[in-house]
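Tokens for AAA+ ATPase domain-containing protein. Go.
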Amino acid sequence: DFLPPELHHLVSFLLRGLMARFNADIKIVVDEYDGSYTNELYSAAQAYLGSHCLDDAPVVRLSKRHDCPFPTPSLPSYHTTHDSFQGIPLQWSSVVERSSSSSSSSPSRSSSLSSDHRYLELSFPSRHREAVRSHYIPHVLAEADRIRLRARERRLYTNRSVVYGDDHRNPWSPTPFSHPSTFETLAIDPVLRDEIRDDLLRFVSRREYYSRVGRSWKRGYFLYGPPGTGKTSLVAAIANLLEFDVYDLELTAVHSNTVLRRLLVSTNPKSVVVIEDVDCSLDLSDRNKKKKKKKKSKPDSDTEEREMDPSEGGTGRGTSSVNLSGVLNFVDGLWSSCVGERLMIFTTNHPERLDPALLRPGRMDRKIHLSYCCPAAFRMLARNYLEIGEEHELMAEAEALLAEVDITPAEIAEMFMRCDGEGKGADAAMEKVIGEMRRQKAASPPSERGPAAALGPGMENGFLLGCDSCMRGDDDAH
Ligand SMILES: Nc1ncnc2c1ncn2[C@@H]1O[C@H](COP(=O)(O)OP(=O)(O)OP(=O)(O)O)[C@@H](O)[C@H]1O
């Protein structure tokens, strides 16, 4: 009443402006992809919003993955839903910006393969900026984890995934994985088997430990040995034991280190990434040996040197430009940006062909030599395939012969299966195997066995014979 009208107007104009500023909404944009990587916050928010909307939203999208026994809800495109957190009103909208190249399909149709730009918009009053950033976003991530964990607990079986093409939007194409191999059916030395099982169970129970010591929650296994000694079977037994997804990575199908990196970060927690026959995939052989060779052959130019040398980011071999340094990065550090536990397993029949850098402790934490059939493994095969035990009259002779010939569990399993199929029974199967071992003994003396022999010259001092712990591949002992 005491102010002149002009000043009155000015003060109320300023106050209105101030209030509007204080109450204005701000937006957080959560893109589906961060560059070429899947944005974890986007998928977490979708999982969170889906379960949140299920009860009251007018439209919810339901989809069912093959490995999940029930459908998962998510927010459809072009929809808005409301949430409230500690009294803060929040609004989520899902937005799709159609790319000019995409077809004029209906808005509700989803295609992970299209190049449309999808994102979520989170709007809330600007004064809650700090609370949303520090409390609400972590709450969404934690809730999404909880929802996924529940789904995983009810899952019926794990995935086997294969790489196809180079479609970075959907690099892994999952197919059902139901390999019957388990630690009970695996015919390997029982001491080694129990050691591996204990190591795995210890690994998955040590979330806090890994975080305390500042290491990413990953473990690398390197399985080597002759063909047919159970490397693939062991991978399947590991996946079945831990109920992990299996990502079967064919390195030659991966065109570049960038794609390799993208593949890795798009794997789920609780997964095993397997590279089988890693020596055959790419040229990951010893750089020192190669350098020596190159010196002898005097390369024409620096360019050639760089192109040949994977450590320099060169192209390695073949059409794939994935090289040793890409694989080392893949094994080393990239998991630090991923949440959850992961196993990486390399298998090979020729460990001596690989660069020792790939195998040093910390990269490959356990080196497991799967060798020819030993008596204990033979007894397991006989029990599993023929349902006979140590009391069988031919068992002692078979075990004695095993010490003198190199025969793989796969060969024995094959003979056992064939006889069983012909209905000749256990005795015939044992006789057949013994006959084969006698024949092999007569034909050639057994080759030297043992891990160092299998690794070949030059590898003995790398990790195997350095110290006892290295021999066991047990990095925790250091
Ligand atoms: N240790 C084992 N225990 C039980 N079965 C085995 C074992 N090793 C091999 N087999 C049998 O032999 C078949 C081939 O074995 P597997 O594929 O696991 O061998 P691998 O070492 O991975 O061979 P490769 O190096 O050629 O890939 C399996 O289907 C399995 O039936």
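Confidence is low (pLDDT under 50) at residues 102-114, 153-170, 297-318, 448-478.
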